[in-house]
């Protein structure tokens, strides 16, 4: 049940006018928890898409090279075999940033998880981080295959390779 903004009376859901004062009822959908989660997901995945800056020929001939950028040491394949491809370089950068973030996180976690009493907490955080890195990796590969130069959530803005 919505409230009329003129008289404060109850207005049945879906009614266009208040039966009490005749005022027009605006759709006031409550922003519920599901919307909140949805907004957050959109915010998270709505990263910069620079696909239009790359030529369609570059994208179509190097999209499979770009996949290797996310497969650990195989990032060396696009580094050496597609060094003239801006599209492959875009994904090489993302894959390299992701790999470095993962290595650094694992190092920090392995130190912190050795602490007595609270070490388990860091082991737990490390497990969650591993899942997050896996999700980013999958997003990166999906973008690469789909010919999208779309930044990864959270870390996609970082540039170490141009
Ligand atoms: Zn009213």
Basic shape: flat
Assess the beta-strand content as a share of residues: under 5%
Q: Give the tally of β-strands.
A: 2
Radius of gyration: 24 Å
Largest beta sheet, briefly? 2 strands, antiparallel
- Please give the alpha-carbon distance between the first and last residues: 55 Å
**Percent in helix:** 40-55%
Catalogue the ligands: zinc ion
Please give the oligomerization state of what you see. single chain
Helix count, DSSP H or I runs of 4 or more residues:
5
Element order: H for helix, E for strand = EEHHHHH
Which strands sit side by side, in order, in the main sheet? 1-2
| Low confidence ranges | none
Helix-strand makeup class: mainly alpha
Mean pLDDT: 90
What are the main properties of this structure?
2 strands; 5 helices; two-stranded antiparallel ribbon; 162 residues; mainly alpha; binds zinc ion
